[in-house]
Write a structure and sequence with these properties.
The protein has 21 helices and 14 strands. By secondary structure, it is of the alpha/beta class. It has a 7-stranded mixed beta sheet with strand order 1-6-8-9-10-7-11, with helices on both faces. A 4-stranded mixed beta sheet has the order 4-3-2-5, with helices on one face. Strands 13-12-14 form a 3-stranded antiparallel beta sheet. Helix 12 crosses helix 14. It binds adenosine-5'-diphosphate (ADP), magnesium ion and zinc ion. The site of zinc ion (ZN) has 5 residues, from helix 16.
Length: about 625
């Protein structure tokens, strides 16, 4: 893709502004340093002047505040000689001059005064115009980049496709689901009539969500490339700047330009810069007015354009979807969300293949092995990895990149990444694998209203190292006690697996325990599911104000110490029961656990058919097998 430059300012305009500049400069100089241009008058010391007066050489003098100019007596035909001196406070001067018969006057003739006053009237506006011209020239008119006076212009870069640099879906790998979803967007852009003819509404906004470097920006470009339409790209932070109100004006301008070029794509990168939840930030006092105005304008524009005659699709990217204002996610705005996640093993291999084409590889290269060693790498990290390896090979003066270059490059990149995000070493990867399989096995036996649909040990986000996805089998509004107990057991399955296999536990289970304990506590205090404590609600109903929840200091009713102790006991019993159940299930299915764990260490993700066949082999336990 190439960036289309805005038309240059015309030549006559350039010459005009140069002239303006030169004349402006000249006038300025004249104003502040008039002596530069005035005829030069020789300066003499005051004492010399007095001596000349005493000697009767002076013909006439003009006495001003800061200067005395005087003319010496000359013979007929001789050129007049004018001298100047700086006066000293001297009250005797008039008397002396009079005594010597010098003709004198108080002020020098206002020789330049009409000129001076003209200057003082004309110069300031001229300076102003000159500055204006300067910024306009830099701003370069409509849609121009940079320049303080173009603040209301959107700074969107317009990418126009040219075949050499065009990005297509082939350049993006490892995010197949996202590609499938966006392929549909391409259809909308190519043949909008096909959809509008039936009366279908073309989606206006598509939000790409995913961790940094997974290819969100790249995907957006690929959509434009595939559809062959112009692509306006702007970063959210570019809307919010310096001047209040500029952001909103820029949004307006951006949409105006886009409509002229429809069908086209507007891509707003880092949407969270403007789209942050209005309630969330700064609480209930004030907030960021400028950002809010910009956001409102964006919402208005998105509501305003009808997708019928001019198809403009707004793509946006963010790695912090949870901070976005809910108003942005409403239908008719960014109602489609596409997850662009870190790639799994197969995905990483494909990405490596793309980038490996661009360097010369040696014969010993095993891309699969490299992909295996790089769990948690995003697309950008892999691209970087290939480049690092190539640099290492070049530094060693080799013709091709060898496997050992990759090995070293991985270490370098990992060292950098470990600071930023999660990259697991082999030991950790193994623990996470068993942990997740633990969840899955217990979950398979004790569904608790959900069916295990996917196990993954690809690190996601900042918190989870792996995850086990349970899909609800149907819409549920009520949960039975046994289902809640199932869920608690499943939550403890991860920890139980670590205990059984490694004989120790890691911090990775902390979040599971938190959730299990919360559930158990709610069973006792809110749902009245405890036989000991009876059907009483020990928790105060959440006093939900518009300030949001989670602000209640002490959620429990005033209960006696005994009751409080009983509640704690009961919660502990429920969690412990779940723990024992999980342990029993995993002990009984230990071989299966080993098998699945080995498998997931190879593929990183198990789902669908494969997962179901494995989980179908889980053996149920008798109640008697659970230690109490
Ligand atoms: P994001 O916008 O999600 O932070 P980018 O799209 O800017 O990430 O990715 C940065 C670079 O990393 C891309 O230009 C591309 O070279 C590479 N890259 C990232 N993800 C992928 C991918 N899935 N397939 C191929 N290349 C990728
Ligand atoms: Mg990006
Ligand atoms: Zn867990």
């Amino acid at each position: 893709m190439s960036i289309k430059d805005n038309p240059q300012p015309s030549r006559s305009r350039i010459i005009g502004s140069i002239l303006l500049w030169v004349s402006g400069g000249f006038l300025l100089l004249n104003l502040f340093f008039p002596q530069l241009f005035a005829p030069k008058i020789p300066q003499v010391p005051y004492s010399v002047f007095i001596a000349q007066v005493e000697d009767g050489e002076v013909a006439r003098a003009y006495v001003a505040q800061d200067q005395i100019r005087y003319q010496l007596k000359t013979e007929e035909g001789q050129p007049q000689q004018v001298l100047a001196t700086t006066p000293i406070f001297d009250l005797e001067l008039p008397n002396r001059l009079e005594a010597k018969g010098v003709e004198f006057a108080a002020a020098p003739p206002p020789k330049n005064s009409w000129f001076g006053s003209l200057l003082s009237w004309v110069i300031p506006p001229l300076i102003f115009v000159a500055i204006w011209q300067f910024f306009l020239a830099r701003g370069g008119g409509a849609g121009g980049p940079q320049g303080a006076l173009s603040i209301t212009k959107s700074r969107a870069k317009v990418y126009v496709q040219d075949d050499a640099t065009k990005v297509t879906f082939d350049d993006v790998a490892g995010v197949e689901e996202a590609k499938t979803e966006l392929a549909e967007v391409v259809e909308f852009l190519k043949t909008p009539q096909r959809f509008t003819r039936i009366g279908a509404r073309i989606p206006k906004g598509v939000l790409l969500v995913g961790p940094p470097g997974t290819g969100k920006t790249l995907m957006a470009k690929a959509v434009a490339g595939e559809a062959g339409v112009p692509f306006f790209s702007i970063s959210g932070s570019e809307f919010v700047e310096l001047f209040v109100g500029a952001g909103a004006a820029r949004v307006r301008d951006l949409f105006e330009q886009a409509k002229k070029k429809s069908p086209c794509i507007i891509f707003i990168d880092e949407l969270d810069a403007i789209g942050k939840s209005r309630a969330g930030n700064g609480g209930f006092v004030g907030g960021n007015d400028e950002r809010e105005q910009t956001l409102n304008q964006l919402l208005t524009e998105m509501d305003g354009f009808s997708a019928g005659e001019n198809t403009v699709i707004v793509l946006a990217a963010t790695n912090r979807p949870e901070t976005l204002d809910p108003a942005l996610l409403r239908p008719g705005r960014f109602d489609r969300q596409v997850l662009v996640d870190r790639p799994d093993l197969a995905g990483r291999l494909k990405i490596l293949e793309i980038y490996a084409q661009k360097v010369k590889l040696g014969d010993d290269i095993d891309l699969k092995a490299i992909a295996t060693r790089t769990p948690g790498f995003a697309g950008a990290d892999l691209a970087n990895l290939v480049n690092e390896a190539a640099l290492l090979a070049a530094r060693a003066n080799r013709e091709t990149v060898a496997q050992k270059d990759f090995a070293e490059a991985i270490e370098r990149v990992v060292a950098g990444l470990e600071k930023k995000s999660r990259v697991l070493n082999d030991k950790e990867k193994k623990i996470v694998a068993y942990h997740e399989v633990g969840h899955a096995l217990v979950g398979a036996l004790m569904p608790g209203g959900g069916k295990v649909a996917k196990i993954s040990i690809v690190p996601r986000g900042m918190a989870a190292l792996g995850y086990t996805l349970q899909m609800p089998t149907e819409d549920r509004f009520l949960m039975s006690e046994s289902e809640l107990r199932d869920q608690i057991a499943t939550l403890l399955g991860g920890r139980a697996a670590e205990e059984i296999i490694f004989g120790s536990i890691t911090t990775g289970a902390a979040n599971d325990l938190q959730r299990a304990t919360d559930l158990a506590e709610r069973m006792v205090t809110t749902y009245g599911m405890s036989k000991v404590l009876g059907p009483l609600a020990y928790e105060k109903g959440s006093q939900n104000t518009f300030l949001g929840d989670g602000m209640i200091m002490n959620p429990r009713r005033n209960v006696s110490d005994d009751t409080a102790r009983a509640i704690d006991e009961e919660v502990k019993d429920i969690v412990e029961a779940g723990h024992q159940t999980a342990l029993a299930i995993l002990e009984k299915n230990r071989d299966l656990m080993e098998e699945i764990a080995q498998k997931i260490l190879e593929t990183e993700v198990i789902e669908g058919e494969t997962l179901q066949t494995l989980l179908d082999r889980v053996q149920a336990i008798e109640t008697a097998e659970v230690a109490v």
